[in-house]
Specification:
The structure is a homodimer.
Chain A lengths: L18 H4 L1 H9 L8 E3 L6 E5 L2 E11 L11 H17 L4 E11 L5 H16 L4 E9 L4 E9 L16 E5 L4 H10 L6 H8 L7 H7 L4 E4 L4 H12 L2 E4 L8 H10 L3 H7 L6 E5 L10 E7 L3 E4 L16
Parallel strand pairs in A: 4-5, 9-12
Antiparallel strand pairs in A: 1-2, 2-3, 3-6, 4-6, 7-10, 7-11, 8-10, 9-11
Helix pairs in contact in A: 3-4, 5-6
């Protein structure tokens, strides 16, 4: 066999240090530099999902892993809801490209002493969340491990629409969001403190309700850029701004800060806006549209695309609102 | 929200016990009974890969998870080879449907102290194995965890061919294999005993060479059934026999027992045929063809399809040759 070192792409030396040192986004960036893309990859790494040409069709493909203790805790809710959440994470990525998820394949790693009933209820949750978009759980793999984890890969169909990437936002576009912001993050804060109410927030965390149909609707309405809010509104708009080479101004007065979020924030002595700006578990969709566009049902304007870079909230750079970053400590 | 219990499929009660009690195949079977398939699922769970209709195209999709300590050990070989093996496992499943893998998406879970260099070399291995079939690594996800695991999902194109399932074997067909049998399993036995030679066997384990082009070639030649040898020849032919409702007779004198395998078996006081009949890590392809068919290059006849059920080797039921079964103890 040939020396594997001989096949490395020139100019991509191996850095020292751990993945914690580099951080999630640094690691992803380093990985992407080593991965050339073939001609049948229409959209490659760096967006919510890849888009591939297969026998003349455009196929959307995305994978998301949920790890016990990181993305869910078995004692915070039933297996059924873990299945719903796991499927929602991938199906929302498909929607964020303007597509409809049509099938899932699922890899599960589990300790040998996991209850069969837990695994079957997980499958029920995956199945029922997939059914929200008429998708099927079409296959999978199971392995023994010490750690419980679920990797859901979704495939989707654009049904003739053009995929909406993160990189098409234009100066002058409006920024609009569809779906809840902050509900699930507030619910997670409640659960983290050992509480179970307000139930409406805990349920929002356990079983998010991404606005799936809004994805293709936004594509159909000519959205210039889109992503799902999985890292938090500021962080995800930051991805759009960076990919598009623009700045984004958010008007916080346009953001809906729901009453239960206000109540919990008051009880915990927190600013409710923090959850709205940084919470990712609701899987809302945020998109940009040309000024004067007729927005699809459910989208609310929350800001505008400007020259420059980065995201400003009410004219100021947000601090401590970077959203989720795995591996950081 | 509605009561999730109300959405369970009637007649599918939740069994008691652990996944170890039920075993891998029992769990998969129980899962499949809970998962109805939509009309765009052309081939669902139970084959090497799913086949889905997306905008008029037939798309092959399969996922495989490799867990550190179960499917690989970082001290048994470099990250690059783990990447090659991980990609090979999924791409061989695509080939076993008669298709060519065109893209991978990869989910990795890793402890925060994993060296960045290890992750990047893993990606190099994934990239180079994918390049064997002109596929790209088009996306992925990364999460912190306590356990290192890699889930590779492959998408593939049938390029106009009809997918070959496990269920089409007909009485009177010949059974033929393409690729190595037993090499990687013998290499694993060597590594498990703390040795590093014969190098040719260790390399076969670290970096399998599935006969990717033989998959579409077999489909083109009219193969009636096919699967990749990932659980072991006897176990995988057992899957074909069960899915097709036939029996399979294997003639062990037709199996190539390579010299290095014989040498290691002699040294360890083992029957070399054991590895050939039960080893799965080489990802050979085994297929059935109508009697008198002209076999594609590389396929060697090793048996025939008969009435009845199960797999016989030289006329006898093999004992202790069930192949890999996760969760069993």
């Amino acid at each position: 066999m040939s020396d594997p070192a001989a096949k490395s792409i020139p100019g991509t030396p191996l850095p020292e240090g751990t993945v914690a040192d580099l951080g999630e986004f640094g690691l992803i960036s380093a990985l992407q530099r080593r991965l050339p893309q073939g001609s049948d990859v229409l959209i490659g790494p760096g967006d919510d999902a890849a888009v591939l040409e297969v026998d003349g069709a455009s196929v959307v493909l995305t994978t998301d892993v949920l790890v016990s203790g990181v993305h869910f805790r078995p004692d915070w809710g039933p297996a059924y809801d873990v299945g719903r959440r796991a499927a929602a994470a991938s199906l929302a990525d498909v929607a964020a490209m303007g597509a409809r998820g049509t099938a899932l394949v699922v890899a599960m790693t589990a300790p040998a002493d996991l209850e069969v009933a837990w695994a079957l209820r997980l499958a029920d949750g995956l199945r029922d969340e997939a059914a929200e978009v008429r998708a099927s759980v079409a296959g999978g793999d199971i392995s023994r491990s010490t750690e419980l984890a679920v990797t859901v890969t979704a495939i989707g169909s654009l049904e003739g629409l053009r995929a909406v990437t993160r990189s098409g936002a234009q100066v002058g576009d409006v920024v609009a969001v569809c779906g809840r912001l902050g509900w699930a993050e507030a619910g997670l804060a409640v659960l983290s403190r050992g509480f179970r109410s307000p139930r409406v927030l805990v349920d929002a965390y356990r079983r998010p309700e991404p606005p799936y149909v809004a994805g293709p609707a936004a594509a159909s309405a000519g959205a210039t850029a889109m992503c799902d809010v999985s890292d938090g509104l500021v962080a995800d708009l930051g991805h759009v701004a960076a990919a598009s080479g623009v700045g984004i101004d958010v008007d916080s007065s346009a953001l809906d800060v729901a009453e239960p979020i206000q109540a919990v924030a008051a009880a915990y002595g927190m600013d409710p806006l923090h959850w709205v700006l940084t919470g990712g578990h609701d899987h809302a969709l945020v998109a940009t549209f040309g000024a004067g566009s007729s927005l699809p049902e459910g989208f609310v304007v929350i800001g505008e695309v400007v020259t420059g870079e980065g995201v400003r909230v009410d004219g100021a750079e947000p601090e401590g609102l970077g959203g989720h970053a795995h591996f950081s400590r």
